[in-house]
Design brief:
single chain; 94 residues; alpha+beta; six-stranded mixed sheet; 6 strands; globular
């Protein structure tokens, strides 16, 4: 199932939703292509979708869910990809 949370993530002067699939990345990428969402909007396990696209994406069949439910369903499906942690810089480098 394709899921979308409310536009509540601020960035670049606007609000964003997250579009994800709790079935597969193939399903997610296919839906994004159909919706006209650019590939550059993909971030690890979801697409970032500007708030002004929210209603159109829901009309195409994305299920509106809370942000908490979206993350929970990604985790339950084994599709959650956390951001890689960068190693801490040591203070002794010159």
């Amino acid at each position: 199932m394709i899921l979308i949370d409310p536009p509540n993530a601020a960035g670049h002067g606007r609000l964003w939703s997250h579009l994800a699939s709790d079935a597969s990345y193939d399903e997610l990428h296919a839906f994004a292509r159909t919706a006209g969402i650019p590939e550059r909007g993909f971030d690890r396990d979801h697409y970032d979708v500007p708030s002004e696209w929210y209603d159109d994406v829901v009309a195409l069949g994305a299920e509106p869910v809370s942000s908490r439910e979206l993350v929970g369903r990604l985790r339950a499906a084994g599709l959650r990809r956390r951001r890689a942690r960068r190693p801490a810089r040591s203070g002794g480098e010159d």
